[in-house]
Amino acid sequence: MVQIQSPRFFFFGGSLLILLSNDDGFRSEGLIALKNELSKTDEVWVVAPEREQTCISHAITLHKPLRITDHGDRLFSTNGTPADAVLLGLRVVLPRTPDLVVSGVNTGPNMGQDVVYSGTVAAAREGAFVGLSAIACSLSARRAFRFDTAVRAVSHIVDAIRDRIGSDDVFMNVNIPNIPWDMLQGFVVTRLGRRIYNGKVIERIDPRGGKYYWVGSDGVERFESIEGSDFHAVEKGYVSITPLHWDTTSHRNIEKFKQIFRGG
Fold this sequence. Notes:
The protein is α/β, with parallel strands linked by helices. The chain has a single domain (17-194, 224-261), classed as Survival protein SurE-like phosphatase/nucleotidase (Stationary-phase Survival Protein Sure Homolog, Chain: A, 3-Layer(aba) Sandwich), CATH 3.40.1210. It is built from 7 helices and 13 strands. It has helices spanning 29-38, 82-93, 114-117, 119-129, 147-161, 230-235, 254-261; strands spanning 17-21, 43-49, 68-70, 75-78, 100-107, 133-140, 170-177, 186-189, 194-195, 200-205, 211-216, 223-224, 238-245. The protein has a 9-stranded mixed sheet with strand order 3-4-2-1-5-6-7-13-8. A two-stranded antiparallel sheet has the order 9-12. Strands 10-11 form a two-stranded antiparallel sheet. Helix 1 packs across helix 5 (147-161) and helix 2 runs parallel beside helix 4 (119-129). The longest helix has 15 residues, at 147-161. The termini are far apart. Residues 1-12 have low confidence and may be disordered.
């Protein structure tokens, strides 16, 4: 396996207090599997949505009260979004500020532009907003999920940064191939690739004659497999680790736009 280096972290060491969340809901097989795996070495608290919230992005709830349900064994659910769940975990549920926020394991990939839509990524980003180390992890599959491989990969990453946990506004987006552990080629740091969306909208008629719509795709994966990207890494059997930042400013275009709007 490729050794993972994690810059800009200070020494911590020892057992971690981990806040675990997701966007698939607190009963998700991937979340429970990851809780069980990480609990072997660390103290894990789960605060997750009570139902699936795929593609909810970084929405927070302002129009209704949020409630928390305690299911025992450090497992909590909320009627809010993934970002709400992390915020409630940080401010209400956990006994102290966690050392690490982990989101997943998501049932499906989050690569390229997926990170904009993803509730899984948003949960990790919420941790990064307050300066915590955070990891979003997704299994690149639509069925027959190899959660055994995924949780082992995430545990490997947590161990790699264990002595480097610290305050940072950069978080990791991890995508794991849906293959047996012994078939993994290693771990590689990547950039976001480009998914090709078809933007399909399907029109239907309800029993009363009114129109309604389903938004989505035809289920066919389309992407540019360019070397160095997350798509290429996963396609080649590597665990992809992409460092992300909440600042989406296009810095290389600032001077260009200054020229356009100079004196405006």
